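Batch queue: ligand-bound targets. Current item pairs a single chain with zinc ion. No template structures supplied; prediction is de novo from sequence plus SMILES. Inputs echoed for audit trail.
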Amino acid sequence: MAIPLEWIPDVPMQRVICHWTAGTHRAGESDRQAYHFLIEGDGRLVRGVPSVAANSGRRLAAGYAAHTLNCNNGSIGVSLCCMEGAQQQPFRAGGYPMTRAQWETMVVVVAELCKRYRIKVTPRTVLSHAEVERVLHIEQKGKWDISRLAFDPSISGAAPCGDRLRREVTAAMASTRLPDIRPVSRDARIEVEQLLERIGEMIGRAIADGIIILIRAIGKRFK
Ligand SMILES: [Zn+2]
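Prediction returned. Tokens below.
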């Protein structure tokens, strides 16, 4: 499979966020307004109405894909058509459970998008809607797509599902079966932003490590 080139315009994008529609196995009209790419129950890829370009950069263009609350800038929205009537606790997948075929298409689609948009596969850049609040610290009001795989009950929770997605996307990107895709033009501004983000992450980790060492030291003092 290869995403048609006219579906993936040459604009800078920063991340891919994966969803489910909470609808049937078909891409309905309102679903197509909300995402850039949809995958139906049989694994067929459907183009959403908004162009990826509408979500590029700091300013959202009219008719952008509003798929993730306060996190649509630079975010490509991919959604699996499924899970209408699903219930989180206790888990019930409803009448349109996520299928293995659509998960597998998603892995390839995300791999192609990462290659096209020069997106590195990390928890901050390839993630599900259910991971956005914890990882990017942007409130999402209890969204739980994708924290369950209806076709594989052995896996549960946003992070395990996201880790599996990233593992499989990474493998797909390394596979020789992935079609040749020309990456988008380099954008100096985006590269500086990505660099700053990486430095910020490193500083954050260093501070967290420092606090843990400090707490341990204090703990020893008062033993
Ligand atoms: Zn969602």
